[in-house]
Design a protein that fits this description.
The complex is a heterodimer of chains A (about 325) and B (about 180). Chain A has about 325 residues and is an all-alpha fold. Chain A contains 11 helices and 2 strands; from the N terminus they run αααββαααααααα. In chain A, α1 runs parallel beside α10 and α5 packs antiparallel against α7. Chain A starts with a helix and ends with a helix. Chain B is α+β, with helices and mostly antiparallel strands and about 180 residues long. A 3-stranded antiparallel beta sheet of chain B has the order 2-3-5. In chain B, strands 1-4 form a two-stranded antiparallel ribbon. The chains are: A mainly alpha (about 325), B alpha+beta (about 180).
Chain lengths: ~325, ~180
């Protein structure tokens, strides 16, 4: 009984820590993105709220919280109100299987630095990233506006196309690590990170992950200049904030997944493991922002052609080659 | 293969361009700290100017009020004892003004003019209603020389009809018939 209570308290503490760090990081990722993007476009970015605009995320949160939460009269009310939660929740849940350090030994007890080490962690992540599309599609549909509906449909179509490439890009990783658990995948990279042996997988995964998190070269569901914000056109206040939060948590989760699958997870010299994971997440995020500052949005047919005609065949060939090499 | 190589090179040059821009100093002008000097003809707060003699230029002809697309100018015309027309009261509602400058173009006496001073927002909307004493200034604005009543062809105590600067005597319309 006592061990059960201790384990429960430990779990709550870990959950609270991870949730707090994720939300804080999401808020400051918005700041980093706005600053970095501004410098790419020779602007200053936010610099009024506090030193270097560091209080900007807090000001934005207060603004979102106090704004009126409008629901269109023609909207499907219950689905409309629930959709943003799906996006934020699935993004947050994905972090549950990401390991952020080796197993700690405190007072003779083993404390794994991961919320839950599922033996099918990779499948869990795919399931959640597929579920996230429901938030987008349902939000777009329930708004009962043509722009939102178009955004939702685009979101669904894009997710389905890129989900395949995303999954296929990770099959070679599973072949190499011989496990679906994220903890085992990180442990398998003790000697060298998988990006060294799987550069093609890495490229496919990064492209597909950007499409999954709806960031700029692939932001067709939002498409400000055609759809006027797409699936969240009709949202305001904190419900819009949840979509926004979901997007930025997604960015971090994909940063973490790139780190776990290709860059050796929390492994690194000198610094403590969670710091290494954070550094890798920030590196991936910065590269994503750089891509956003450089590339224009793809046309819809280009998006589909890239997904189906380039990424999926390439991923399949890559699986065959990896399988053949590991058989030798 | 050649096209693939082409597209990779195009992508790389794009990323190189944005990376170079990262190290350039921002070109943003930070507004409240740095105020860019505006051109004299930029259009903001409206003033009523005086002629070089120091008298009001406005002759209350209502042309500005008539041309105003948002009807934000109103006035009442009256005449002084020396025969000069002027506005008894003159009011511009800056809460409605769109700063189009039509009033300035319509004005025959260069009285109404727009200035580059744009920082006049208020929390109370009624404070944006400017009366004549708020609008009147002690200079000639952009048109330094012009003095309407010297060219007007109107009898005032400056001179009778045709007695003003560079004016010809009025024609006798009865002797002027063909």
């Amino acid at each position: 009984m006592l061990t059960w209570i201790a384990g429960f308290i430990l779990l709550i503490v870990k959950l609270g820590l991870v949730l707090g760090v994720l939300l804080l990081l999401a808020a400051y990722l918005v700041w980093v993105e706005r600053k970095f993007l501004a410098r790419l476009q020779i602007r200053y970015g936010p610099n009024r709220a506090g030193k270097f605009g560091l209080l900007q995320p807090i000001a934005d949160t207060i603004k979102m919280m106090t704004k009126e939460d409008t629901v269109p009269e023609a909207a499907d009310r219950i689905i409309f109100l629930g959709a943003p939660a799906v996006v934020a929740l699935t993004a947050l849940l994905m972090f549950a299987v990401v390991p952020f350090g080796p197993t700690l030994m405190i007072a003779g007890r083993q404390i794994p630095l991961v919320i839950t080490d599922l033996n099918v962690g990779l499948l869990f992540i795919f399931a959640l990233s597929s579920l996230a599309v429901y938030g987008v599609a349902l939000g777009g549909w329930a708004s009962n506006s043509k722009f939102s509906l178009l955004g939702g449909i685009r979101g669904a179509a894009q997710m389905i196309s890129y989900e395949l490439a995303l999954g296929l890009a990770l099959v070679p990783i599973v072949l190499l690590a011989r496990s679906l658990s994220l903890v085992d995948i990180v442990n398998a990279q003790a000697d060298y990170p998988f990006v060294v042996v799987q550069p093609i997988s890495f490229a496919i995964f990064v492209i597909a992950a950007m499409a999954e998190s709806k960031r700029i070269p692939f932001d067709l569901p939002e498409a400000e200049n055609e759809l006027g914000a797409g699936y969240h056109t009709e949202y305001s206040g904190m419900r819009f904030g949840l979509f926004f939060l979901g997007e930025y948590v997604h960015m971090q989760v994909f940063g973490a997944l790139v780190a776990v699958f290709f860059l050796g997870g929390w492994r690194g010299p000198w610094l403590p493991p969670p710091v290494w994971l954070l550094l890798k997440i920030m590196l991936v995020a910065l590269i994503m922002i750089w891509i956003r500052g450089t590339l224009p949005r793809l046309r819809y047919d280009q998006l589909m052609a890239l997904g189906w005609k380039v990424l999926i065949p390439l991923a399949l060939v890559n699986i065959m080659v990896t399988g053949a090499v590991s058989l030798l | 293969m050649a096209t693939a190589w082409e597209s990779v090179r195009a992508l790389a040059s794009g990323f190189a361009t944005t990376f170079k821009h990262l190290w350039r100093p921002p070109i943003t002008e930070e507004y409240p700290e740095y105020k860019r000097p505006l051109p004299v003809r930029s259009r903001a707060r409206i003033i009523l100017t005086r002629d070089p003699d120091g008298a009001e230029r406005c002759v209350a002809c209502y042309l500005c009020s008539a041309v105003c697309p948002v009807s934000c100018i109103s006035m009442q015309a009256t005449e002084s004892e020396d025969g000069r027309r002027y506005a008894a009261w003159f009011r511009i509602n800056f809460a409605r003004c769109i700063y189009c400058g039509f009033c300035e173009e319509a004005c025959p006496t260069s009285a109404i003019q727009l200035t580059p001073d744009f920082e006049n927002c208020q929390r109370d909307i009624l404070k944006l209603v400017y009366e004549k004493q708020d609008l009147l200034v002690d200079h000639q604005g952009k048109d330094k020389e012009y003095n309407f009543y010297k060219y007007a062809g109107v009898a005032t105590d400056v001179g009778a009809k045709g007695a003003h600067h560079r004016e010809e005597k009025p024609v006798n319309i009865r002797s002027n018939l063909p």
